[in-house]
Amino acid sequence: ERLGFPEVIYGASKSLPVLIEILQSYQSKGLNALATKVQPDKGVALKSQFEGSLYDDISGVFALREPNAPDSPSNEVALLSAGTSDAFVVNEAFYTLQFLGCHAARYNDIGIAGIHRLLSKVDELKKYKVLIVVAGFEGALPTAVGGLLPQPIIAVPASVGYGVSENGAVALNTMLSSCANGITVVNIDNGYGAAMAAYRILQRTA
Amino acid sequence: ERLGFPEVIYGASKSLPVLIEILQSYQSKGLNALATKVQPDKGVALKSQFEGSLYDDISGVFALREPNAPDSPSNEVALLSAGTSDAFVVNEAFYTLQFLGCHAARYNDIGIAGIHRLLSKVDELKKYKVLIVVAGFEGALPTAVGGLLPQPIIAVPASVGYGVSENGAVALNTMLSSCANGITVVNIDNGYGAAMAAYRILQRTA
Amino acid sequence: ERLGFPEVIYGASKSLPVLIEILQSYQSKGLNALATKVQPDKGVALKSQFEGSLYDDISGVFALREPNAPDSPSNEVALLSAGTSDAFVVNEAFYTLQFLGCHAARYNDIGIAGIHRLLSKVDELKKYKVLIVVAGFEGALPTAVGGLLPQPIIAVPASVGYGVSENGAVALNTMLSSCANGITVVNIDNGYGAAMAAYRILQRTA
Amino acid sequence: ERLGFPEVIYGASKSLPVLIEILQSYQSKGLNALATKVQPDKGVALKSQFEGSLYDDISGVFALREPNAPDSPSNEVALLSAGTSDAFVVNEAFYTLQFLGCHAARYNDIGIAGIHRLLSKVDELKKYKVLIVVAGFEGALPTAVGGLLPQPIIAVPASVGYGVSENGAVALNTMLSSCANGITVVNIDNGYGAAMAAYRILQRTA
Amino acid sequence: ERLGFPEVIYGASKSLPVLIEILQSYQSKGLNALATKVQPDKGVALKSQFEGSLYDDISGVFALREPNAPDSPSNEVALLSAGTSDAFVVNEAFYTLQFLGCHAARYNDIGIAGIHRLLSKVDELKKYKVLIVVAGFEGALPTAVGGLLPQPIIAVPASVGYGVSENGAVALNTMLSSCANGITVVNIDNGYGAAMAAYRILQRTA
Amino acid sequence: ERLGFPEVIYGASKSLPVLIEILQSYQSKGLNALATKVQPDKGVALKSQFEGSLYDDISGVFALREPNAPDSPSNEVALLSAGTSDAFVVNEAFYTLQFLGCHAARYNDIGIAGIHRLLSKVDELKKYKVLIVVAGFEGALPTAVGGLLPQPIIAVPASVGYGVSENGAVALNTMLSSCANGITVVNIDNGYGAAMAAYRILQRTA
Amino acid sequence: ERLGFPEVIYGASKSLPVLIEILQSYQSKGLNALATKVQPDKGVALKSQFEGSLYDDISGVFALREPNAPDSPSNEVALLSAGTSDAFVVNEAFYTLQFLGCHAARYNDIGIAGIHRLLSKVDELKKYKVLIVVAGFEGALPTAVGGLLPQPIIAVPASVGYGVSENGAVALNTMLSSCANGITVVNIDNGYGAAMAAYRILQRTA
Amino acid sequence: ERLGFPEVIYGASKSLPVLIEILQSYQSKGLNALATKVQPDKGVALKSQFEGSLYDDISGVFALREPNAPDSPSNEVALLSAGTSDAFVVNEAFYTLQFLGCHAARYNDIGIAGIHRLLSKVDELKKYKVLIVVAGFEGALPTAVGGLLPQPIIAVPASVGYGVSENGAVALNTMLSSCANGITVVNIDNGYGAAMAAYRILQRTA
Ligand SMILES: Nc1ncnc2c1ncn2[C@@H]1O[C@H](COP(=O)(O)O)[C@@H](O)[C@H]1O
Ligand SMILES: Nc1ncnc2c1ncn2[C@@H]1O[C@H](COP(=O)(O)O)[C@@H](O)[C@H]1O
Ligand SMILES: Nc1ncnc2c1ncn2[C@@H]1O[C@H](COP(=O)(O)O)[C@@H](O)[C@H]1O
Ligand SMILES: Nc1ncnc2c1ncn2[C@@H]1O[C@H](COP(=O)(O)O)[C@@H](O)[C@H]1O
Ligand SMILES: [Mg+2]
Ligand SMILES: [Mg+2]
Ligand SMILES: [Mg+2]
Ligand SMILES: [Mg+2]
Ligand SMILES: [Mg+2]
Ligand SMILES: [Mg+2]
Ligand SMILES: [Mg+2]
Ligand SMILES: [Mg+2]
Predict the structure, then answer these.
(1) Last residue within a domain, chosen from E41, E63, E85
(2) Which residues make beta-bridge pairs with D132?
């Protein structure tokens, strides 16, 4: 706020009445507000409570008012992931960016097992100012992206996998140890944090 | 290289003869070269082998030729840390930035236990384009910085501490879980990676 | 008991019949009794079984008789936390202190991301004899408090967070490694233990 | 300092020249100063550099001037441990307390395997205002003490043991999970922190 | 079997039809059979399927025929634990011993926080040939028992606790690092294994 | 002692002067004494200090007087291991048993990769009252032994291995999870504890 | 695909509509398709949606068309496990192999606690080209197999067990540290991966 | 042996005299013998003790007689790694393969950060029957190889890295979770095991 960042509400460990109370205080001031990781039962209740609100049941993002930044009109942030399993993280970043007034485009078909799909997109991806790359299992996608593209890269490990990679820790450690240059990392499933980090960079970008 | 990044040599697990061979191949092409995490015995030997070279025995950085970017002439990157214990990481980032032609200023007196020292520097720190924040023990410094300053922040955990914080993992996890908005993180002791991430951002910055 | 401490019942792994039996034996002796971490279904059943009893569904604390120590009349213990997510731990400490006949005041609006909220309360907080500080995620609040206030500080990590900080272990380790002087720590979510530790100190305090 | 606490220097990760520089700045202001976890080679050098200084080679504590608080003249703090293996932690707490002007008595013969040794000391131990209890291996001593004595207890896990208890983590976790009431804990080997926590309590004690 | 041990069925990861099939094959040979860790729904179904069978819903032990060894007629095995939370492990050992034709007595009131309860039972406990000691949380009970009694001791960690001791690992490690002499340990919650180990000893005992 | 067990000194974290002082106090009372895990430099010094003493440089066991129980004259304890790498643990158990007046025989050629070597010894091994089984790497030897022999089995994980099994933790966990019936376990490298556990059993054995 | 491998769908983290969409796109191209780790509710729905499809509710494998490779007609792959608890992993490998057109035979009665059952099958097992060995708990079966049979061995840890072996990590580490020669390992519960690894080998085998 | 595998000696935890004794027993039978992970001091001593022997000081492999299989004459096994840091593992596999009479070729210049180097070798690599892929840090190389080549792949994590990837565990977990199909894995630094696994496959290969 003091820093020009809107306040965002962590929804996972707040009860429905507490969430409603907080959201009403924003609403009464005429402000929009964003809550993340809101579980489905609470999200559905909030959606019917606040007219004109948005609830994305894949990511659990709730917003008092639908952000009106259109999907991908400019070339600010590209959101890359391997497939539909990572969508809950991708969407958290996507709606947070919209809420912040930034433009984001989603690339969900960029798997590393088939490296050619990524290679064929390299030129198109060069246009974006910041790249957010989400991956679960062994989390190798940011390494491949980092070897092919020069922009700032924010890697987000996703808690997708089983056995040794069950909770996202392997993807996290892979991203932290990446042999590709200058990749930065945020917490497991922290699409919100990746969006905020992109926002900090975009504020500085010509 | 393809991406405009100079190649940097990881020195820790290479023998002296191997390092000399690699460095000579750069030298023979008239190129400068940087090696990181070079242990003291190898560093001293390299220094006497290559005339005009630089070896920083605090960080283990070796460069064929002294980078000539002067200390802190502009306001590109601020390097913050609590004290002298973190200097080995700070210096790795500092010399890598110089090697990349970026300007960096070191702030080593910014301890969080005495929050007033940080508060008194906030205005001066606002001038930098990117902030790299190094911390060991519980690693709380980036959270405090993130609550006070709006720039891109790259947090680097340092392997300084004992007991539960012996190897830097507590600092790493603190930084990843930070309640301050949009902080990104690199591997423990990875001053080099933080510098490269800053470089990616600076390339995009007006 | 021998030490002047009332016995407190650990409710989480006891069945309802076992809890009722134990509580009735206290009741029949005319004693009050406290049970902690009682799950909602059992708590509601106990409340209707024992007239005049208290069940706090946020913390799971049950007491045979409502403790009659009023909220915050004197300046014994201040309970600090960042927000509503930590309330389940705060309340466990709060009701235990009341049960022990100690006076406690709750400060739930003391977040470290906005350091100014804490700074504005420092003078008021100086009046308390003991500070209990609850924090989840990266658990940095006790460090900030410890740098600003001279009293005994008991830090309680809360199992609030996700990704690397999911179960409270990061907050615990941060508190144990704190660079602030002389902070002591109890188990994750152990509001009860923090209250007992405060009670040991208050017994010695003028 | 602001809080009335003297500044203490963490010696483990500072080079000899850096330590000398810091200590001279204290000396030139006529102040005493304490450094902890100073390795033997550096400790011996400091001792010969600064006349009238103290270096305890068991704990690695260095002080510019010998603290003159006599051993155990009053009944402020009792330091309990099982035997000589824990002495490096006990002494760090002991000399820090002396430096802070507090009186401490050491009880090194209180093993839990032979519970009768502890039982025979209970009456004598009741006189102290604060108990610091150090233990390695399984770390059960604080639990036994906590069941027998009502004072504030600060437990310190020691990195003494092998196999599963090699680095002190088992002792730490035992102390945090103790079924004895109201035991507080500091980091592994953190005798310094235990002393500071005792000091915070003693400041409040009649 | 070849070794004179009856075969015991691990019930947790077998479906009801699979369990019924296995048990019927024992029944058709006129043999008794034991299954452990059978979940309530399956246990209740088995109980009504097999007439004269036993299902203990605390431990999940199922037996085709009620073992007829009376509770505690001789002095073979004493089962010690702190309280009712550990009963699910105690009972698994108890019914397995009965199935093996051994006599076992349960002592559930032996808490270490009140060491006097244990001290008052020492003479009575001296009569048993083997001691099985179950403990959760910090798991210190076997250490205390081992310092007071000379028999073979089999310690069983119970998955009772929260925070750092949530899954029984702290109790396990405490038992493995015990400073009491010659304590042996089995897996967390493995009452069955403790009973089998006691049985191996009893076969050798005069 | 009270329990009829001789006191054994843990040598690893005691300095040479401290060890000499303790040993002299035993010697002056005409008692034998055993110290375990005494490092080579201290062991050699003790050996020359105390005439007629024993120091085994493989295990680090020191005894004031050579125990005079001959190697394997009766059939009390068999010590099994796969090969020479485990000898440091085997010998700690062996000399402790001798010190306790028990008879022990070593079988170092019983590898599980070649199961036929173990099978060929089964009849001979049936004669012993207690089996101690030492294994590093994956620690599977006790499982095989437990499937073939009915006696009490004490498994000792050895810190022999590399990669995932570097510190003995894999062997420990394998032994704790063994599908063979009634195997008990002691701490990693704890040959001393295994000997004491065998001694407790032998005291009860006809 | 490019490599001649059919694409297999990871079903666990995909919603039913997403799965249906993907499967229909395969169906419309006249292709068979396999999905793994499909939870029961989704599996049952898919089975009724796609006529002629296969859903194995033990492993969660779904196939658009029943693979028509008969059970075990030739001697390509033997699937070994100790018993019914491991069947969910065994079946994932079995149906994947069928889908790949390979012949597999299941040996579910090969427990290591009774080593004779395995020994009696050695000659029969010699006929297979590749051995896949599944084990939970301590995971020792592959070691025994590796000491008796010369073929390529792919070991699969199963998440079957409790206490220290709850999630399959002990079995995994045991297999990685096996003292038997040349055993390879895949992720916990990864029957699919084991089948693919066998397929890579069979493609090269005469 | 029984299986046609030569016995290989684990050298790391054996003393020089023990190694000499074992090797002489092979020599006296006219057999060659291989020892792995022999530390430099012991390796040098063995080399001068046994005429005509081989000691590779990079991997620590010792062989009584130089294997005479020439480097890479046929197309049996390709050994891939990113660079010189992994050479200690590569060479262990290389010399073991030679000892087993297999032909191996080393590709040390195949880094994933520069994916084009790998792409340019794909056709050449198609000729080999088995691929062994060694990687440290985040260990992503096998995933890339697995997406491009159809042969059996044995991945070996190397203990090369720092921070979170210090001991090779990240590389191990990455390889186990790889999204590329059918990759198998051996223990960290286990070049020997990878060679034996390749040997098992080659025995079956036309
Ligand atoms: N300190 C460092 N931490 C992480 N990566 C590094 C470091 N120094 C160099 N690198 C990277 O390691 C690669 C060089 O590895 P190498 O070929 O083994 O010297 C380069 O691509 C650098 O990006
Ligand atoms: N042994 C110790 N353990 C933890 N903190 C310490 C220790 N010794 C000194 N400190 C703290 O570390 C700070 C000094 O750090 P430094 O400026 O690096 O010397 C002081 O504020 C002390 O509170
Ligand atoms: N190797 C060992 N492992 C575990 N405990 C030991 C060992 N050696 C001696 N002890 C125990 O440690 C206690 C002695 O500790 P201390 O008084 O420090 O010598 C004795 O009571 C022994 O039971
Ligand atoms: N059970 C499984 N374990 C690991 N990988 C799998 C599994 N099932 C499918 N896959 C792989 O996951 C990829 C499919 O991922 P997706 O596109 O998300 O369905 C395929 O390329 C398969 O190689
Ligand atoms: Mg993914
Ligand atoms: Mg720091
Ligand atoms: Mg919090
Ligand atoms: Mg101790
Ligand atoms: Mg208990
Ligand atoms: Mg072994
Ligand atoms: Mg199994
Ligand atoms: Mg590598």
Answers:
(1) E63
(2) D79, D154
